[in-house]
Every structure is written in structure tokens, then in C-alpha cells.
Write the C-alpha cells for this entry.
Amino acid sequence: MATSRPIAVSKSNIDEIIDEDSRLTKLIYSYLTSAVGWLIFGTFIGLFLGLKFVYPDLGNYPWLSFGRLRPIHTNVVFWGWSSLSMMALALYVVPRTSQRRLFNIQLSRQALYIINVSILLGVLSLLFGVNNGGQEYREFIWPVMWLFALGISANLLNFYNTVALRKTEEIYLSNWYIIAAFIWTFVVVVIAYLPFYQHSLGETVIQGYYMHMGVGMWFTPMVLGLTYYFLPKLLNKPIYSYSLGVLGFWTQMVFYSLIGAHHFVFSPVPWWLQTVAIVFSIGMFVTLFAGTGNFLLTMKGSFRTIKKSYSLPFILVGVIFYFLASGQGSLEALRSLNEIWHFTNYTVAHSHLTMYGFVAFLIWGGIYALLPRLTGKEPSHLLVGVHFWFALIGLLVYGFALMIGGTLQGKSWIEQQPFINSVELMSSFWLWRAIGGTFMFIAHIVFAVNIVKMKPVLSKEFETEKKIASEPI
Amino acid sequence: MKLDFHKNHRLLFNTVFWGFVILSIIIAVVPAYYVNDVTPTPGSKPMTFEEFQGLKVYVSEGCMYCHTQQVRPLESDKMFGRPSAPGDYAYLKPLDDLRMTPAVLGSERTGPDLSNIGNRQPSEAWHYMHLYNPRSVVKTSVMQAYPWMFEIKEDPLPDDYIVSLPPDDAPKNGKLVATEDAQHLVAYLLYLKQAPIKILGVKEIASTSSNKTGLNIGESIYKSNCASCHQQNGEGLTAVFPPLKNSSVVNSDNADEHIGIVLFGAKGRTIDGVKYTSEMPAQKENYSNEEITAVINYERTSWGNKGKEITAEDVKRIRERGK
């Protein structure tokens, strides 16, 4: 059964093959192996942290303590897994849609080293209890984060020049999103790490901005840009509406930039800032409808193709979670709902629904679409299925456990019950969370196996053969 | 020049860059700059050296991932103290050259808020026990234990802090001694007291809010709901919560502004030359016209104020007129 299943789509003519550059394939694979390594490491830590809620005395050592491992989990899956895997896909998409070679392969190779070193240093410093001040996702101290920013800049330079020297007249929409994501992230990091306006509550204002933009101006536009390439490509038809994609792009930039303070609703940061954030959070529905509507309408009528493909189901799930989880984020900003959900485990569910259901699933869809065609080696279809279902079921169990538990937590506080009640009522939900997390972790192991299976053959004898075997998508 | 984003990469990415930079400055840098240097809440103190070292331990061990330090102006937060004011964070600064201002406000409340923990839980001994083994004092706690902040000594020195423990948790061979880190951390936790201390505690609020207190209804509502910010003596908190005593709004013959603020709230308003960033929450949903009349008249006749008293008709009129 597994072997008879066809690859999702036939190749399309929208863009020509430039050439088969085995150096690029090798580089993309290096990015992916680093990313997968960080995924396994980061989510193992995550699972361990989840178990601590069930067995609080698990690992009573400084290096295994909750407060030190939590930022390692978040930073590793952010900067290690998600960022590197997105960049791996961008290394293919940007040159391909610009119909030319990558501007400078060497530059991106060095960027990979720099980023890996920065994350490694960051993890070590966090283990030693040296963090930037407990600002979520900003825990890497500045020397580490500047190193990371250097890596990002190198790739920005590379992608920008690739697009600038493109052979097409128009800049394909994917490149709007991808290059903008790099530019925005660079700006965000610079603003977040300049100290001049960050004493007392100034830090909080910047933190609201940072923790929001770090996610939404980096991961969101990156995966949207990649999906604007992979989805139409896999379905072998153009995107439903290019203009909707452009609308989504500009509203993303204008609306999303203004809503960071919704992480501090009811806090002492200036009230007008919170109100602006709430208003534009609702405005984000425009972006959200533009994006998901566009993707879903593109998929309309092609569900047979989706069914037959092993990468498209990931993209379908990613798109659905983009809509649900981002919509959820906007609603959480409303004062009435924020009152129930803020500070509770509901927020933890939300961040996993976004970073996992939305971002990671779209990345997986992209990887399973690209890598087999690049290396000519297919993963076991059965194992891709295992990866898909374990990740999805794990996420749903995780998400629902914490959403229900979080709501009950919030209710308990509103009823002004003794605080400890809100801890005790969570115990069964935390157990379910750990179970869901275990499923997710198993999915990642399977994913790693699949990645190994798709390893390019790079010795000289096979080079020519590979070129023939690999098909562009 | 033709604005063709589709074909002109310079134009497109310049717009993307500068547009975002400008938006970021408006929404992040300027507001941050504006609250960068707030006046400390009157009565609050800067940290001592030990307390500051304790904050460093707090940051290193990631306490803020489970404990907030922001009391919201909500019923559910009353148990933690009065609503946090910008001035409560005035003494926070970068920890050292490597680390920035700590994010003590937090985003998750797996454990209780600590803004006022020094008042709510002032026992040093309790904190040591709790840090060494949280479950020895709170059975169902899921907090991380910090045994590495303690050492077991057979012969403790005279100035060692010896932690008293129930027999089951006590080490078999020797005494449990708090390390410097633990002592600093506890010093910091005890430093966390909301100023001024005179502010109504939760229990007092609860007791005055019932109708059995014998106070007139305006005074009762004021003391349970308004006094945590405007203070019992009507003097407010300098630069944070405006005083009602001698306020031009409260003493003016035309009470419309006063009624409007109580009904619909206020924010970013300048009163008697002082700009207040903290928000006055709207009360129109919480109280009837009669109750609001009572509170406003209490305010207009207390602490030496001589504002003209109002009737429920006035409140009704403003309520219908809207903001």
C-alpha cells in the first residue's frame, strides 16, 4: 500500500527548473537536520516540564529545575526548530520563485553555523541560570541574541539579493512575506535589546511588543509566505486570489504591529495602549479571513489531491489552526474574555495551538513536499501517517486539556475561591497534557526517522544519478 | 513615480522596513520611553543590596514563569492586594551589564501573585521551609523545590540561618542551613510589599462592603471600592491616583465632570496640572444612580471638600447623555 501511493501532484510549469544544485540540496538538508535536532531536544525538555506538573519532585536539581528549563524549551523550539526549518524551506522557495540561483550559498552556510552556535550558547547560559531577565522568548542575553541576529541578517542579505537579481519581472508574493519577516524580525530584535527606554515599566511595554512581534512578525509571515508557494504548487493550480494575499500582507504589517500590549491587558501599562491593542486584535480578523479564505478556496475542489498526498494534509491542518488559533488570540484580547483566561493555562494551550498546530504543521507540509523531490528519496508513507496522526491527536489532547482546565482556573479566581483550588483542579488536566505531549514527542521521533530516510546521496558517483531522479515540484 | 510594489523590490522592502520602524516607534519605543522613568509609589523603598541580590536569584531561577507581580483592577485579584500602579515598578532596573530589566510582571499565574507577598506572608521561616520543600507547607503545591539553596551542616556556624523543619522533612544528619542565595531570595520576597501599608486589605474591604457596617451607603461603597486607589483620607497617591481632597473636579459647583468620570471612567487625564496614566474604571455597570449619588456626595462633603451635592436625577441625566 505504502509504495503504491503516488506522490501528491505532478510537476507544474509555473516556474522553470533553474538547475539542480546539489550544494543547495545539501545546505537545505543541513538546515533541516539542525532543526530536527533542536526539535527533538526542545520538545524532550517540554515533555519533561509537562511531567513536572504531575510529579513536582521530578529532578530537584538546578539544571533540571522548571525555571531554567522552561526558557530552554521555548527558545529552542522557536529559534532552533521553527526558525531553522522555515529558513531551510525559504532557501529553496526564494531562489525558485526568483528563477535564479541563491545569491551566495556560502553565506547561508555560515549563517547556519552562527545560528547553531548562538542557540547552543544560549542554552548553556540558561542552564547556568544566566538569562536576560525572564522576559519570555527574550531570555538569551544580548551577546547571544546579537549573534543570532547576525545569522538572520546574513540570510536576509542573501534572500534580498536573490530577489533583487531575480529573473522574473514581478516579485512573487511568497517573497514579500519571507523577506518582510526577516526585516521585521531584525527590527524587533534591535528594538527589544536596546536598553535606553527599558527601565521599570518601559521594559514591560517593550516586552509586550517583543513577545508579540517575535512570534507574529517572524513565524506567521514566514510560514504564510512558504504556504503561498507550496500550496498552489502541490495542487498544481494558481492561488485563489493574489490580491487577498496582498491585502493580508499589508494588514499583517499595520494591524499586527499595534497589538503587542494585549499581553498586558489590565496591567499598569498605559490604558490607551491596551485599548489600541484590543481594537487592532479584532482588526486582525481581516488578515485572518484574507489568509485562510485564500488558502481554503485554493484547496476547494482539490480534496482528492489532498487525500492522496502526504504533505497536503499537514498544510490543511496548518491552515485550519491558523484560523482557529489566531482567532482565539484575538478573542483573548477582549477585556471580558481576558478576565477569564489571562494568566491561566488557557494561554499555554493557545501558544501551542499556534506554534504547533499552525506553524509546525505548515513547516512539516513544506518539508514533506520539498525534500523527497529534492533528494529523490521518499519517506515511508506509513511513517509519515504516524507522524501526522500522533502530532495531531497529541496536540488536540494537549490543547483541549489546557483550554478546559484554564477556563476552570479563571472561573475559580473570579469566584474568589482560595488560590490553591485553582492548582488542585488542574491536576487531571495536567496529566492529560503530559499524555498529549508524549504523543507529540513520539511524532517527532518518527519525523526524525523520516528525515534520515530522505537524506540526499551526495557522493560524486551518485551526483548525476540524483539529478535525474530528483524532480522539481 | 509609479507605486508598483509588485515589480519594484526597493520600494516594497523600503516600505516594509520604514513602515514597521515607524509603527514600532509609535507603539513601543515612545510609550516605553514615557513610562521608563515613573515616580515611585509614595512609601515604596528602593531595594537594599541583599534584596537586589535576591531579585537576581528570582530571575535566575525563573520565578516569573509561574508567579505574576501585577494585581489587576479585578475582583478576582483582590486577594493579592490593591491594583498595581506604574510607580510600583519604579525601582526596577537592569540587573547588570549582561542582563536587562527583569520582567517581574509575568504572564502566568500557576502560583499566586507576589506583588504583596511580604505583607501577605511575612514569615521568614515559612519562606525557607517553602523554598526547601513547598509541599511541606502547602500539601498540594506543584512548585519546584529548591534544595540546592540549602546545605546540611553537622556543626552550623553561629551566624548560619538554621531552617526549622517538621521531623519528616528534616535531614537525618545535621541541620539545614540556608545558603546566601536563599537568604537573598527571602529578603527580596519580604521586600515585596505594596505601598502604602495603610491601604485597605482584602478582609477590610470585604467587611465594609456589607450593609451591616452602619456606615452610610456612600461611605461604605467608597471605602470598599474607591479607597484602595484614592485612599481612605481622599489624598490619592501622588502622580498615580488623583486626590479627591481639594480636587477642583470634586469641589466645582457643576458636578457633571465628576459624575461623568465615575460613570464612564477616565484615562490619561490631566487633573489640577498632573497627568495620570492609570485608568479610572467606569462604574456605570456596577452601581445604580442612587448608589453613585451617595458615593459622589460622600466625596464632595468629606475631607474638607465643599462641593455642591447632587441628586440621582443628575446622575440619570449624565448616564443618558453618555460620555
Summary: Chain A has one domain: 22-469.
